[in-house]
Write a structure and sequence with these properties.
The protein is mostly helical. Helix content is 62%, strand content 4%. The chain has a 4-stranded antiparallel beta sheet, with helices on one face. α20 packs parallel to α22. One of its GO terms (cellular component) is membrane.
Length: 732
């Protein structure tokens, strides 16, 4: 009710209608008006939602749009969209299969490659569930399938190109020799990419987010299992194809229209690839232009990632499930915060717990395992100095800026409540009475505390209620709770400031005590109000550290494989620049660092490694007698076509997922499109230009293990000879 005399408003405004209008109907700062339908939210209203959407879409009035609504159907719509969006995932898989088919010109090899990918996913799931005993399998683990498809196609293209090149060379006419030469060369490249990608995933398992741990374990397992399958399955399949399938009848013969179409597409792509790779001026002549251009782009990506707009933590309390323009998501993102009754939050309660350790002993990969309570030593509450310390703690707490002194708070501090309870009792009936002087005698305090606890903890008492907790009839823990003046909010900076102020207060209070600090070391919580902030801070801490760990592990693997410092530096610099560019573009697109985005971004490291590592390995085994430019062009002629085919496979798969309604599919498609283009450009233009200027010449900075001796030098020379033969066959 509004009082007209005190508020100086007209009589027609002195009623509840004004409050209801501005609290429920009209937004606070935008021309938005809500319309309420008197129906219960949930699945029964889905038919009304679909009918309303159809009516508005068919309306002749183009000025009427259904911008946002809230029917409580977001989860139901998400479940339906998961089913309907399978068509886009299926389209992406079909396109990938077609690209593999066109590249290999073999139905048998394409089918066996897809079978190996399916075996990888199934066997990895078996290891995940029954060997690792991880029961929790989040939806995000399905994204590992994209990794398997990308690596599977990449390995197939490398192996198939090597096989065809050696087969067409003059020095390899025996099938056993072709298999040996192909395996010796292709297995190294496949091992480097698989080991680096698996290391990247396993290095991210230290995060506190259980879903990310499970995803990294499953994705890393998929990569290793696929490597084991591909080095045993793929050579056998190629041999079977060479001995039996190639001589048998083709599904699409030479005279069939489909066969002619596929061979025409393959020949045109091969001709285009050779044309680009044979134009050395594209890379060698203007290498001085490629280097500064890509460096400037990567620096811009770093500024966008860490400066402005930077990759910020999520600012919304609702988890986005559907596409950006869906009415349900628009309501949660744009409308909710402008309406009072939807955006008003309660104040955060502050709870301090003494005598309980923060150590977590639950399941590391089980989201349902919360562990058991771990107690730590608690100060003797009956000691006079302990009574004074807790009384001073509560007094200091009331003086803080975050303490809400606008309301009368009770039952927050057990010492103050005990004193109040004693002061109102008469001395005629009990020892605990108003004549006692604080601090109390040890025996008196213990006796009165037991009586106070028995008298007060029977009315509305819960597990989180303030007071003393007992174990074996002795005080084991203390809970002190007060109400703060800070509203529960999902703004990271505001919650960070609140968390910092309370932590500073705790450090100050515990540092002033002259007694054992461990006995007075509490932790605090906000009854669930800081859970979202905890997720935000965890993601902000884990992402930079995980990227650094992954890059370090990748550099070690590259160095062990190539044993060359310059190649390691070039590959590491290429991967870093590609990562910065990809993540910087995602920051410019408005991505926030939520759990889904963090899992998707962890794929960036694995997918950004493959192409630079293939170029580094190809340069390493190129003939040592050639100069830098010749070695670079030899490497590109050998792996350039394979990398381009792998890039097209992932690129088309990502584009096919963009029209989906589920935000996970849309963001995954956006990410795949960006990361694969960035990795291919840096691997095909930046890294070769870098190697032209700083690449090792001959055996410069080339290390060798002493145990290898002449055998290592001989194997390197043989590999270089084979690669030179491959290059000549490619040119022909």
């Amino acid at each position: 009710m509004f009082h007209s005399r005190r508020c100086n408003v007209s009589d027609r405004c002195a009623n509840e209608a004004i409050f209801e209008l501005y609290h429920y109907i009209i937004s606070t700062d935008k021309p938005i008006t809500l319309t309420f339908i008197h129906m219960a939210q949930g699945k029964p209203t889905y038919s009304l939602y679909t009918e309303l959407r159809n009516v508005i879409s068919k309306s002749r009035n183009k000025n009427v749009h259904l911008m946002a609504l809230n029917f409580g159907l977001k989860e139901h719509e998400f479940e339906l969209s998961l089913t309907s969006d399978i068509c886009w995932i299926s389209l992406a898989l079909v396109v990938v299969v077609l690209i593999i088919w066109i590249y290999t010109e073999s139905v048998f090899i394409t089918f066996m490659t897809c079978t190996s990918m399916a075996f990888t996913v199934i066997l990895s799931y078996t290891l995940y569930q029954f060997v690792f005993h991880i029961e929790y399998f989040p939806f995000l683990n399905l994204l590992a399938t994209i990794v398997v498809i990308g690596i599977g196609a990449d390995d197939l293209f490398i192996y198939w190109k090597t096989w065809i090149s050696i087969k067409h060379s003059r020095n390899a006419s025996i099938l056993e020799r072709i298999v040996t030469y192909t395996f010796e060369h292709a297995s190294t490249a496949m091992f480097v990419t698989s080991a680096s990608t698996a290391t990247a995933f396993f290095a991210c398992t230290y995060t506190d987010i259980v879903s990310m741990r499970c995803f990294c374990i499953y994705a890393g397992t998929c990569v290793l299992v696929h490597y084991v399958i591909v080095i045993t399955w793929l050579p056998a399949c190629v041999v079977i194809y060479e001995k039996y399938a190639l001589r048998g009848c083709h599904v699409f013969g030479k005279e069939s229209k489909v066969g002619k179409l596929f061979r025409s597409i393959h020949s045109q792509l091969t001709r285009l690839s050779r044309f680009l790779l044979n134009r050395q001026s594209i890379i060698s002549t203007i290498s001085y232009a490629w280097l500064p251009l890509f460096l400037v782009i990567s620096v811009g990506g770093a500024i966008a990632l860490f400066g402005w707009p930077r990759l910020s933590p999520p600012s919304s309390d609702t988890f986005q499930m559907l596409s950006f323009r869906h009415p349900f998501e628009v309501f949660d993102r744009e409308v909710r915060k402008h309406v009072n009754f939807l955006s008003s939050y309660a104040s955060l309660p502050i709870t301090f717990v003494f005598g309980v350790s923060k150590a977590f002993n639950g399941g590391y990969f089980d989201i349902k395992s919360h562990g058991s309570l771990v107690l730590q030593p608690l100060a003797d509450l009956s000691l006079p100095e302990t009574q004074l310390w807790f009384s001073n703690f509560c007094w200091e707490l009331r003086q803080q800026d975050f303490f809400d002194d606008s309301i009368i708070q009770s039952h927050g501090c057990f010492v103050e409540e005990l004193r109040t309870w004693i002061m109102v009792r008469s001395c005629a009936s009990d020892l605990c009475c108003q004549d006692l002087v604080f601090p109390y005698n040890q025996s008196v305090f213990s006796y009165c505390l037991d009586k106070y606890t028995a008298a007060t903890m029977t009315h509305g008492h819960t597990v989180a209620s303030p007071g003393v907790r007992y174990k074996n009839n002795k005080p084991a823990a203390v809970i002190i709770s007060f109400q703060s003046n800070v509203k529960a909010d999902y703004n990271y900076d505001m919650m960070e400031n609140f968390h910092k102020n309370v932590s500073t207060f705790l450090q100050k209070v515990t540092a002033n005590t002259e007694m054992n600090k461990e006995l007075y070391k509490p932790f605090f919580t906000a009854s669930g109000g800081l859970l979202f902030y905890d997720v935000q801070s965890t993601l902000l801490r884990s992402l930079p550290l995980s990227l650094a760990v992954v890059l370090l592990a990748s550099s070690i693997i590259v160095f062990v494989t190539t044993l060359n410092i310059l190649l390691t530096v070039a590959a590491l610099l290429t991967i870093s620049c590609s990562l910065l560019t990809t993540l910087g573009i995602l920051s410019l697109l408005g991505w926030e660092l939520n759990i889904l985005e963090s899992v998707i971004m962890s794929l960036a490291v694995g997918l950004s490694m493959d192409f630079p590592l293939h170029v580094a390995v190809a340069y390493r085994i190129s003939p040592l007698t050639q100069d830098r430019k010749q070695r670079v062009m030899t490497s590109l002629r050998h792996v350039g076509g394979c990398l381009t085919a792998a890039m097209l496979t992932t690129l088309v798969a990502g584009i096919c997922m963009l029209p989906a309604q589920v935000v996970a599919y849309v963001k995954l498609g956006t990410f795949l499109t960006l990361v694969i283009i960035s990795s291919w450009l840096y691997s095909m233009f930046f890294m070769p230009s870098l190697l032209i200027h700083i690449g090792p010449v001959g055996s410069f900075l080339q290390l060798r293990f002493k145990c290898c001796g002449r055998k290592g030098r001989r194997s390197t020379k043989d590999a270089a000879t084979k690669l030179l033969i491959l290059t000549r066959s490619l040119q022909s």
